[in-house]
Write a structure and sequence with these properties.
single chain, mainly alpha, Na+/H+ antiporter like fold, 22 helices, 0% strand, globular
């Protein structure tokens, strides 16, 4: 049917494709299979087409070119009709993302897996259906979604809860990452055959956990009452936010040394400076917002928009402050939310409720756009060995989390759950995984390949394990009144 459409006008092509909805939905999967067979394997189709292998190969090659031509022409024609390619791209992201996440949910697979797959299919490395102008601002959109979920986390955390889990959270913010990086330094040269410096860069890319995966799960546990008596969700959320700052600073140091050959010990001061200055800014702005909202009565939607705007400004400030000083906009956002919650718990609850509705669209954009950034063509560069390496270093991360929780009142099952919950990776790897390749480092391809595999492996697996283990390993108490 596809080849027969080539002789028709574009209008007839659209009519044929839309005549049967089921066929139109299945068309991308069929095309994906054809392209996969074309670039990945040599299949003997002689039993279907001809007994002459040469004629069969020519026929397949000819049909592949016609399918590619048809697909590109159809996409360009649709974009020319719509006229607003970016809006059409948003429509594709929401429609395919919702459909894929719903399908995964029905078969007990984490919905974010479907969003990632939808992003891969729509992205530039597969069918290239997303407007390039949208891909240019993809990082900013992902950052916006991350801001929303971290602001929700801050509004849900209580300062007294953080005080009760302060030391374990501090340990978990850097010890598991250091253990994972150390394991990478030891095993990566042996498994992948790379240098120690390349292994250090790879370790700092892989070691960061994903707040975008962890925080929504922990918020759900707080809402349903699982682990809240011992403040387990609060512990994991707080540690995950600090973990990213520590790892990103280490990545900047290692990649800078690989490019210039210079190493500055003062760069390590950026970690405590980022946390201290970010927390201070968050406290000041949180107090100011609480005072403003108590003095001026506005609708909850306006309150949410003002709070979100301040959060955007904090992240912008982080980009303009000199790197030698250090400032974390994400820490400032969480602390601002905690401060507002402490001063006015009811208002914080209402803002969180508004943000939870906004998160529905933000989550779809976040994970689908993460999927568009994944280049599956880079995976064969390391393949099975990368997966083996990830499994090894994740064991060290798990053991390090257990070590951080040795002096806590948690049971063995609760400690194991914290280890599993501290595994998913996604947003940081998608953001910095391609930087070594952009810098022209020899390890660039390997780092990108392992980063892609880490997202596809740990994000769905970690989300799935959290969903099935929380009811078995955590004790349920009275849910927190968040929404």
């Amino acid at each position: 049917m596809i080849i027969g459409c080539l002789s028709n006008t574009p209008i007839e092509i659209i009519r044929i494709l839309t005549k049967n909805t089921i066929s139109f939905i299945l068309l991308p999967l069929r095309l994906f299979r054809i392209v996969y067979l074309q670039v990945g394997r040599e299949i003997n189709f002689s039993i279907f087409y001809s007994s002459n292998m040469e004629k069969t190969a020519e026929l397949i090659k000819y049909n592949m070119h016609k399918i590619d031509f048809f697909f590109i022409k159809t996409k360009n024609f649709i974009f020319s009709i719509v006229g607003l390619a970016m809006l059409f791209s948003f429509a594709l992201i929401f429609i395919f993302g919702l459909a894929a996440s719903r399908l995964c949910k029905t078969i007990n697979i984490p919905p974010l897996t479907g969003m990632l797959i939808a992003g891969i299919i729509l992205g530039p490395y597969c069918f290239n259906l997303i407007d390039p102008k949208l891909l240019v601002i993809s990082a900013e959109i992902r950052q916006t979604a991350l801001i929303i979920i971290l602001l929700r986390a801050g509004l849900a955390l209580k300062s007294k809860d953080l005080a009760s889990v302060g030391l374990p959270a501090l340990f978990m913010s850097f010890i598991p990452a250091c253990a994972e990086i150390s394991a990478m330094l030891f095993f990566a040269p042996k498994i992948l055959g790379i240098s120690l410096l390349d292994a250090a860069i790879l370790g700092t890319v892989i070691a960061a956990v994903s707040p975008a995966v962890i925080v929504p799960k922990m918020l759900h546990l707080m809402e349903t009452g699982f682990g809240t008596k011992k403040k387990i969700p609060q512990l994991v959320m707080a540690a995950a936010s600090l973990d990213d700052i520590f790892v990103i600073v280490l990545f900047t140091i290692c990649s800078g040394f690989a490019v210039s050959g210079n190493f500055s010990y003062t760069s390590l001061l950026r970690v405590p400076c980022s946390i201290i200055f970010g927390a201070a800014a968050g406290i000041v702005l949180g107090l100011a917002l609480a005072a403003f909202f108590s003095a001026i009565k506005v609708r909850d939607t306006i309150t949410m928009l003002i709070t979100l705007s301040i959060a955007f400004i904090l992240v912008t400030i982080e980009t303009v402050i000199p790197t030698s000083i250090g400032f974390s906009g994400l820490i400032a956002i969480m602390v601002m939310g905690i401060t507002v919650q402490k001063k006015d718990a009811e208002r914080a609850r209402r803002i969180s409720r508004k943000l939870s509705k906004l998160w529905i669209a933000a989550e779809m954009l976040l994970f689908t756009l993460v999927g568009t950034a994944l280049d599956l063509h880079s995976i064969p560069a390391v393949g099975f060995y990368a997966l083996l390496l990830l499994c090894v270093v994740l064991v060290f991360r798990l053991l390090a989390v257990l070590l951080c929780l040795t002096r806590t009142p948690f049971t063995i099952g609760e400690r194991f759950f914290c280890s599993i919950a501290y595994m998913p990776k996604a947003t940081v790897q998608a953001a910095i995984g391609s930087i070594p390749l952009t810098l022209g480092l020899p390890c660039g391809t390997v780092v990108l390949s392992v980063a892609v595999i880490s997202i596809l492996f740990t994000a769905p697996l970690g989300s799935f394990l959290i969903d099935i283990l929380h009811s078995k390993l955590l004790t349920q108490s009275e849910p927190l009144q968040m929404q």
